[in-house]
Amino acid sequence: MKSLVLSLLLASSALAQSNKGAPVKPYPRSMVSFADFKELVAEVEGFRAKRLVDLDTFLEMSRDAKTVVLDARSAFRFDRKHLAGARNLSFSDFTAENLRQLVPDPNTRILIYCNNNFDGDQVDFATKMAPRFDDPPRALPESQILGNRKPLMLALNVPTFINLYGYGYRNVYELGELVNINDKRVTFEGSVVSKGR
């Protein structure tokens, strides 16, 4: 056994020595473009502002059989609790092909919601936000306490809307209200709902 380990070590050392002087071809640039994203955000911002709807409008639109209510949270959270009738495609799985499988016609009306639309369930609809910290720290006036600064909202709806638009879906509407989880107008489905939690 010792001789096998020694042989493997010697072989890997010899291979490393033989490759030492060989030029390494650099990888191509990643397929990430912050400039493209900024351009898309600028294009979507005004469009999205006109597509925020209140709960009653959202629910009325959702009753149309041709409308898709899309939940882009993780499959785990979706399976536990989601709006009745919603369909799931986790944001991390957004690709042109996956979206076309879920919504073949890009003209289909899509309604979106996320964690930051519901208040009162910090397990399955945990608010996505981050405290704001100064980097580097700076002197604050005595009247401004760091803990009282408005947190940074990091709702999934924003990147979901931007990406749907980028993939060619323009008939998108977003729930624009913070709804109490116990609002009687809202029906949830999922494993924790069926268990009465």
Question: Can you summarize this structure?
Answer:
This protein has helices spanning 2-19, 34-49, 55-62, 75-80, 96-102, 157-166, 191-194; strands spanning 52-53, 68-71, 82-83, 87-88, 110-113, 118-119, 129-130, 152-153, 172-175, 179-180, 188-189. By secondary structure, it is an alpha/beta fold.
* Count of alpha/pi helices: 7
Structural class, please? alpha/beta
What is the alpha-carbon Rg in Å?
Answer: 24 Å
Supply the CATH architecture of the domain at 43-121 and 156-194. Answer: 3-Layer(aba) Sandwich
Distance between the termini: 57 Å
Helix content: 25-40%
Under CATH at level 1, the class of the domain at 43-121 and 156-194 stands as: Alpha Beta
* Strands side by side in the biggest sheet: 1-9-5-2-4
Order of helices and strands: HHEHEHEEHEEEEHEEEH
Are there runs of 5+ residues with pLDDT below 50, and where?
Answer: none
List keywords for this structure.
197 residues; alpha/beta; Oxidized Rhodanese, domain 1; five-stranded parallel beta sheet; two-stranded antiparallel ribbon; 7 helices; 35% helix
